[in-house]
Structure to design on (315 residues):
């Protein structure tokens, strides 16, 4: 069996901790670079909790404490010297990310891959000013990263696609089902499609066609019914292509194409809504019900992964 290479990460917030958990669970040693050691203890406790969840769900076979023992947390970039792969997961700030890359380039070999967990910043912008821009890739994870199978690997204008294929092969060994974007585009695949859907959802609510609850109900029981089994192109294959062609001609001209942020979104943000994080969102919550929804989401995430794995795409 090929020895697992050590992986470096940068940032141990919620997403960074989840990413580190995924890599630890796959058998790698992980060295996590943080800005300060102030929150290191809390991150270690959080990661152990994630590993224990994976163990309870049968997705981790070894003792969680043994997996955690492969984690080193440091504020010294020199601890990443010689690493072949480092994955950055800090705030969505171009300047903050570039500062990290400049630090990494002082210790990494020229052929080391740097991956940025970004969901919106074009990779091409992040590559500007780097000594070796060809080795920077976007690696877009979904939360919770240690449970979901989602990953997008994005090439910027200067990326060497050979590096992208290395990450894809590695990600498959982590239990992911990665997608490759050969060309850089803002929002990548899933965010472009999701936000087009969100724009139409807000349009239906704001124009009085349906309530928030009814929009959610329709999507849960139609799109939500098939989307884990098949993406849109496979679904059209399965249900008959010509009907979609007819509907597209009629419906596309009528869809919302506004460039403005929806008024309802502006309103809830102005009111300080974070969602279940502060028990205030598009739906009413108490602190207790918000915590219950968070718990249900984690349980569902495990269940839907197991269901997806049951129906393999390899036919």
């Amino acid at each position: 069996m090929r020895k697992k290479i050590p992986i470096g990460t940068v940032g141990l917030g919620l997403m960074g901790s989840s990413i580190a958990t995924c890599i630890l669970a796959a058998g790698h040693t992980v060295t996590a670079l943080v800005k300060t050691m102030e929150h290191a203890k809390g991150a270690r406790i959080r990661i152990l909790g994630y590993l224990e969840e994976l163990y309870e769900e049968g997705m981790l076979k070894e003792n969680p404490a043994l997996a955690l023992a492969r984690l080193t947390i440091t504020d010294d970039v020199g601890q990443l010297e010689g690493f072949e792969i480092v994955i950055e997961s800090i705030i969505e700030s171009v300047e903050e990310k570039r500062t990290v890359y400049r630090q990494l380039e002082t210790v990494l070999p020229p052929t080391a891959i740097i991956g940025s967990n970004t969901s919106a910043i074009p990779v091409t912008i992040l590559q500007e000013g780097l000594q070796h821009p060809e080795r920077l890739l976007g690696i877009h994870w979904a939360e919770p990263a240690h449970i979901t199978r989602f990953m997008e690997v994005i090439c910027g204008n200067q990326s060497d696609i050979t590096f992208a294929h290395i990450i894809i092969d590695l990600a498959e060994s982590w239990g992911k089902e990665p997608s490759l974007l050969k060309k850089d585009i803002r929002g990548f695949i899933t965010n472009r499609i999701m936000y087009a859907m969100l724009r139409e959802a807000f349009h239906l609510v704001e124009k009085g066609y349906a309530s928030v609850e009814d929009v959610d109900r329709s999507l849960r029981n139609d799109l939500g019914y098939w989307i884990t089994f098949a993406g849109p192109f496979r679904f059209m294959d399965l249900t008959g292509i010509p009907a979609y062609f007819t509907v597209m001609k009629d419906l596309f001209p009528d869809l919302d194409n506004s460039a403005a942020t929806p008024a309802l979104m502006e309103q809830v943000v102005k009111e300080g809504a974070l969602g279940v994080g502060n028990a205030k969102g598009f739906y009413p919550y108490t602190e207790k019900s918000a915590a219950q929804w968070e718990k249900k989401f984690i349980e569902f995430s495990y269940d839907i992964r197991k269901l997806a794995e049951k129906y393999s795409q390899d036919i």
Q: What stands out?
A: The mean pLDDT is 96. The first strand starts at residue 7 and ends at 10. The beta strands are 7-10, 30-33, 71-74, 85-88, 113-116, 136-141, 151-155, 179-181. The chain has 13 helices and eight strands.
